[in-house]
Write a structure and sequence with these properties.
Structural class: alpha+beta
Number of domains: 2
Radius of gyration: 24 Å
Strand order of the largest sheet: 1-2-3-4-8-10
Largest sheet: 6 strands, mixed
Shape: globular
Distance between the termini: 37 Å
Length: 376
């Protein structure tokens, strides 16, 4: 049973927004594009392994993806955690093409592709640290001492795995995706005795989900990009021209003559990802490159956002939290219906989470109305 879903990482969304909002001649565009490509490949690899996990018995295995758990003054992160009454398995996923050489002397992974070598941190060392942190966390939280195993799964079946002749145990820790289920079965067979009850396992799962903290990636700060470098205006979905012109309740592109009634939605998403989760009328006018405060007000009101403050200084709250099914479940229980429906409707309308080949497909207004019962 999947207890915590895998969602498209926020860093990928930020990088995509950043590429939309930087000039074509920006000096850091290449670095950003390269990072986005690597992160997409990593996410693709993780979802490929998730497919294998879907064949496991949901009554026996509890699966949690993308965990970030506090430990002392920092956090430890886990790609995937598999929990049963007999054992826990930490799964670190790597998606690499070419050759992966595990160097036991310098504790590094040497990746070779198209004749070019690059050094990466050794994931085998990484999962040893994760295992230690998880065992410490279990003890600290007075949870059952279930045996903890770990493995690195190379999700690209064409990756050639190599190591030195004296590194004999690496095959127990690093495996290809196609042998992943066999690895899980072998561990299960070797563990004949249950070390925790179903009730204890469910408590462990609940505690992990409760203590999980979403990362707050500071991509702009890392690349030293200021808000002033970002391109303003609503972007055309057809030809990517900007800024679109607002006329008679629609957005018009002077470059390709296309029109849209909801092209501003992506601009609001970009603002939340790159600048912040609160916005007011003046900031909307600046970022969308419109002059009318009345138009800005209508756009904000149509999205039914949570607000605070008096009319003149009113702040509107943007949030991606509702993209996460786990947070949906929790907020259904914790939030009043009114507040919950506001943010749900907004992001069901504009979050655009149908990922096909890492492209985003926006909902039309009719689809939005049909899904939420709210007309925009």
């Amino acid at each position: 049973m999947i207890e915590k879903e895998r969602i498209l990482p926020r860093t990928i969304l930020i990088l995509q927004a950043l590429l939309r909002r930087l000039p074509h001649n920006h000096p850091k565009l290449t670095m950003i594009s390269e990072e986005l490509g690597k992160r997409k490949a990593g996410f693709k690899g993780e979802t490929a392994v998730d497919y294998k996990l879907s064949f496991l018995d949901p009554k026996t295995y509890y699966i949690l993806h993308d965990l970030r758990i506090p430990c002392q003054d920092s956090f430890f992160q886990l790609d995937t955690l598999l929990i049963t009454t007999k054992f826990i398995l930490i799964i670190e996923v790597k998606y690499l093409s070419g050759t992966a050489y595990f160097d036991p002397i310098f504790n590094q992974l040497i990746h070779t592709k198209d004749g070019i070598e690059s050094a990466l941190p050794d994931p085998a060392i990484q999962i040893k640290r994760q295992k230690k942190k998880l065992i410490e966390w279990l003890t600290k939280n007075r949870l059952p001492s279930i045996p903890v195993y770990s493995c690195v799964v190379m999700s690209n079946d064409r990756t050639i795995i190599k190591t030195s002749s004296d590194n004999k145990n690496i095959h127990k820790m690093v495996i290809h995706r196609h042998s992943f289920l066999d690895k899980i079965n072998d561990i299960g067979v070797s563990m004949r005795i249950e070390t925790a009850t179903q009730k204890e396992v469910k408590k462990l799962v609940r505690t992990l989900v409760k203590q999980h903290k979403e990362p707050a990636p500071s991509v702009l700060e890392r690349y030293k990009i200021t808000e002033g470098e970002l391109l303003k205006g609503v972007i055309c979905e057809e030809c990517h021209h900007r800024p679109l012109v607002r006329k008679h309740g629609s957005w018009f592109c002077v470059a390709c003559n296309s029109s849209s009634i909801d092209a501003h939605i992506q601009a609001f998403k970009d603002y939340e990802l790159l600048i912040g989760s609160t916005v007011n009328n003046a900031k909307v006018r600046d970022f969308l490159a419109i002059q009318s405060s009345h138009v800005a007000k209508r756009l904000l009101q149509s999205l039914q956002l949570p607000t605070t403050g008096p009319k003149k200084g009113r702040q509107y709250f943007l949030s991606f939290e509702e993209d996460n099914p786990q947070k949906n479940k929790q907020k259904n229980r914790l939030q009043p219906d009114g507040f919950h429906s506001l943010s749900i409707h907004f992001w069901d309308h504009c979050s655009i989470s149908f990922i096909k080949g890492f492209k985003e497909y926006p909902l039309s207004v009719s689809e939005y109305s049909m899904r939420t019962g709210v007309s925009g």
